[in-house]
Fold this protein.
Amino acid sequence: MTEPLDWRAQNLKSWNTRTPLHLASAFYDLEGWKKGACSLKPIEIEEVGDVRGLRLLHLQCHFGQDSLSWARRGASVVGLDFSDAAISAATALAAEAGLTARFVCADVYSAAAAVGETFDVVFSSYGVLGWLPDLDAWARQVAACLRPGGRFHLVEFHPFLYVFDEALERIVYPWDSPRESPIHTEENRTYADPETEVKLADVSWNHGVGAMATALLRAGLVLDSLREHDWMPCKLYPGSIEVAPGRYRIEKLLGVPLVVSIAAHRPA
Ligand SMILES: C[S@@+](CC[C@H](N)C(=O)[O-])C[C@H]1O[C@@H](n2cnc3c(N)ncnc32)[C@H](O)[C@@H]1O
C-alpha cells in the first residue's frame, strides 16, 4: 500500500531549504532593501493604493520583505507563512530595520484562527496559490480575515505560464489541476539562486483564473476587478525581455498573459 501524500510536510521542507538561499540572493536584493529600496511591484502598489493607517495581513509572506515594504508605506502589518525559517527571518528583519510588524508561523488554511483579528486589507502575491490544493478553503480563510468592508488583493503569476515544460515548448500540465492529481516536481536549484545546487521536491496544483475568482465569490466576497497583464515584474524565465524598466515579457510567450490580479471586498 502506498503512503498517503504529505504534501504539506514536503513543501514545508522545500520552503525551509529555499529560505536561506533567498535571503542571500541577488533576486531578492535584501541589502538594497535594507538601504530603502521597495520590494513591491507596480501592479500591487497601484491596486492596493494608499495603506497609511490600515491594518494589512500578508498571507504567505515568505521572509517578510514585501510585508515590511507595506509597513514602510504606513500599514500596520501582520505577515503569515507556514515556514518557520521564513518567519524567524522576517521577525529578525523587522527588528533590524526598526519596523513594527507581527509575523505568525501558521498554515494559510488556519490563518483566521492563527492571526486572531480582522484586517482592512488582506494581500497575497506571486507564487502563492500553486502550493494549495483547495481554493475554496483558502478563499474562506481570506474572507474570515477581512473586516466587513475590507479588501482582498491577489497578484499572482498567470496559470498560462504553468502549463509548459521547462523549455516553454510543450504543454505538459493542466491549467487547472484536479485536487487528486497534484504535480510533482524535483529541482536542483531555486528560482532566486541559479548558482547553488540544492535538492527540492515539491507538490503543487495549477489553478485557473476562473477557479480563483469563483472561490472568492463562493466565500462571499464581491469581485471589484480581475486584470490580466502581458508582463511580469521579474526576470524569472529564460528568454525574458525587458520591455520597459522592471517589466519583462518572455520571448517564447509573447502576447499571452503572465500575471493576473484580482481585487475583491467583503460586503459591509
Ligand atoms: C513564492 S513565496 C511567496 C512569494 C512572495 N511574493 C515572495 O517572493 O516573497 C510562497 C510562500 O508560500 C509559503 N507557503 C506555501 N504553502 C503554504 C501554506 N500551506 N501555508 C502557509 N504558507 C505557505 C511558503 O513558505 C513561501 O514563503
In short: The mean pLDDT is 96. Residues 7-23 form the longest helix (17 residues). The radius of gyration is 18 Å.
